[in-house]
Design goal:
single chain, mainly alpha, two-stranded antiparallel sheet, 23 helices, 58% helix
Length: 645
């Protein structure tokens, strides 16, 4: 089990509480009647947790209680069978889409410790790989990615005890290479967790971490960490230029800024930073730029160009002689594998069909690109034309051999592994039949032409993760309704990540974000996004993110689809024409008012002239049809003679 639940007897506990006794009875009972009763009760717990997690409302609402729900789901995940799978699926979906909130940090640490405990103290003891390990590693990746974002905001200062509690599990996890080396989908998540905690612990715990110089002298002598490139100071944490400009690009896409092209030029200018050992920064940069690529073709082109340059640079270095002093790129496979996952997510969730087609086929309109995926004669030096899904399949397939580079077979593994999951994700979607058919054909060619067991293992591992008896190769037309909580890819974490970092580095008065405790320092902030530059020293501009009131983050919605964007564009057009018509009406009304004033003035002038002529002729100052004043009547009566008697 993860942890011992509070010891309560079934008689004294609330009717809907999850206890140790319930978990033990559920896992050990052999009585069919009791097993059915416990299963029904577990299903009720699952339904109650789904409501508390807010899976249909992205974790918001009065009925949502995430700390309690996460704790209950962690306990339910100790039940064997379908209940365990459902609980882990729910936890994965919740950690994926929930917004960043400081109040969730204690519960997030509880989830982190629980999942690490399960991986290190249970999964490692198994002889074979189980699908639950894949799900646990995916949850680990999301949890520690969130912890790193909180770390950037400076919110882990008061959680040193929680970080210390993670140390034994991290130490055990660092020896998992032999167990998970053959499974890059798990090994990549493990390496991400270790690298993230290396940076966090180096800053927050200093000498009190397993990554300290006392424990790893040789490791620090070889500088096999991010500490050389990710600098710390007394004020905060510095990120590299590439990540900062990728965040700027995402911000420009969201705001429809005309400066996007300039920002992307700076992204390409800093492309060499993708080759630095601080691969965690590189991964974050690719994640943020990948989110922008789901909405913008120029960002997709820049993303693919970055990876093409990265692969060509790494390949050229690996071909150099051993006598030459070159950098160690043994970490490069982490970047390549995560890039394959980013491509899969763009292909599934991009805003337009053109973006989805481009990321799969590429920008090249060559019709023979699909036919050349598995050439019969593999060239000695294959050309990397594009880093689309088909382009990378062609490239990696051409370089595959028993002694190929680690980056080659892991990149190939990641593509095939994600293709199987993409085919499963698109099941029953009639609008995506064309894409799913293309994926299915690509996987069939992989099975027929590729003999390497590592690539066939990727297909089997993906099917095991899906835990679906339906064979994606034989049941193409099967229609299955997707269920919330049964997620294959992380749909929202990239959006949450990009939005939070954008609000951190480009704060505005009308957008709320996580409050800062430690200011973050960024170098070389560009003029197109910094209206007020306070100081300039040589060519480096330092800026500090100011503190803002502690307010919860706004709800972030999924990416707008074609119809939503069409409606928004139509609304903008209507508003534009309405504004033009309103201005025309205002001009017409102003003209009418001017003419009315002129008419009134002419009427007054005409009346004055008429009265003047009347006065001259009749010697009267009264208006026409106006009786004279009473005094004048009396005076006239006196002047008139009296009539005779």
């Amino acid at each position: 089990m993860f942890f011992d639940a509070p010891h309560k007897s079934l008689g004294s506990s609330p009717p809907f509480s999850i206890t140790n006794e319930f978990i033990l009875r559920f896992n050990r009972t052999t009585n069919p009647k009791e097993k059915k009763e416990l299963l029904d009760l577990a299903i009720k717990h699952i339904l109650r947790c789904k409501r508390k997690l807010g899976l249909k409302t992205l974790g918001t609402g009065k009925h949502v209680n995430l700390p309690t729900a996460w704790t209950d789901v962690i306990y339910l995940a100790q039940c064997k069978g379908a209940i365990q799978d459902e609980a882990l699926n729910m936890l994965y979906a919740s950690v994926d889409h929930v917004s960043f909130d400081n109040d969730l940090l204690p519960a997030l640490f509880f989830v982190a410790e629980s999942v690490l405990y399960r991986l290190c103290c249970d999964a490692f003891l198994k002889t074979y790989l189980y699908s639950v390990e894949i799900k646990l590693s995916k949850i680990c990746y999301l949890v520690f990615l969130r912890l790193f974002i909180y770390f950037l905001h400076g919110h882990l200062e008061s959680f040193k005890q929680h970080l210390l509690r993670l140390q034994p599990y991290l130490y055990a996890l660092s020896f998992s290479g032999e167990s998970y080396y053959k499974y890059p989908n798990i090994f990549s998540n493990v390496q991400f967790v270790l690298k993230t905690m290396e940076i966090i612990c180096e800053r927050e715990l200093l000498s009190g971490s397993i990554f300290s110089p006392v424990e790893n002298k040789k490791r620090h002598k070889n500088i096999d960490s991010d500490m050389e490139h990710l600098q710390f100071n007394q004020e905060g944490y510095e990120i590299n230029h590439l990540l900062w400009h990728c965040i700027a690009a995402w911000t420009c896409v969201q705001n429809n800024s005309p400066q996007l092209n300039k920002v992307l030029e700076h992204v390409v200018f800093h492309k060499t930073q993708l080759q630095k050992k601080c691969w965690l920064n590189s991964v974050l940069a690719l994640l943020v730029l990948g989110e922008a690529a789901k909405l913008n073709m120029a960002c997709l082109k820049t993303l693919m160009d970055l990876m093409r340059d990265f692969l060509l640079s790494i390949t050229s270095v690996q071909k150099e002689e051993e006598s030459c002093k070159v950098d160690d790129f043994s970490w490069a496979w982490n970047v390549v594998y995560i890039y394959t996952t980013i491509l899969a997510e763009i292909c599934l969730y991009a805003a337009t069909s053109n973006l989805r087609k481009t990321v799969f086929v590429g920008f090249c309109e060559c019709k023979s690109s699909q036919k050349d995926i598995f050439p019969m004669d593999k060239p000695e030096q294959p050309e990397l034309r594009e880093t689309s899904i088909l382009g990378l399949l062609n490239y990696f397939a051409s370089k595959m051999s028993d002694n190929c580079e680690q980056m080659t077979w892991i990149g190939y593994y990641g593509l095939v592994y994600n293709l199987v999951k993409m085919s499963w994700e698109l099941r029953g979607d009639e609008e995506q039949d064309g894409l799913r058919n293309l994926i299915w054909q690509t996987l069939q060619k992989t099975k027929d032409h590729e003999k390497d067991e590592r690539i066939h293992n990727a297909i089997n591992i993906a099917k095991a993760e899906l835990n679906d008896p339906t064979d994606p190769f034989t049941s193409y037309s099967t229609k299955v309704s997707s269920d919330i909580g049964d997620e294959v890819f992380s749909k929202y974490i990239g959006w949450r990540l990009a939005s939070t970092l954008s609000k951190l580095f480009f704060p505005s008065t009308d957008a709320s974000r996580l409050p800062l405790k430690k200011p973050l320092i960024k170098q070389d902030q560009m003029k197109y996004l910094n209206k007020k530059q306070d100081s300039m020293k040589k060519r480096v501009l330092h800026f500090t993110v100011r503190e803002h009131p502690s307010v919860s983050e706004f709800l972030l919605f999924p990416y707008p689809d074609f119809f939503t964007k069409r409606d928004e564009e139509l609304a903008r057009i209507i508003d534009h024409h309405w504004q033009k018509e309103l201005k025309i009406r205002q001009k017409e009304e102003a003209i009418c008012e001017t003419e009315e004033r002129k008419d009134k003035q002419l009427g007054k002038n005409h009346f004055r002239e008429m009265m003047k002529r009347r006065q001259e002729k009749l010697q009267k100052q009264t208006k026409p049809y106006e009786l004279p004043p009473r005094t004048e009547v009396i005076s006239l009566e006196k002047k008139m003679p009296l009539p005779p008697n």
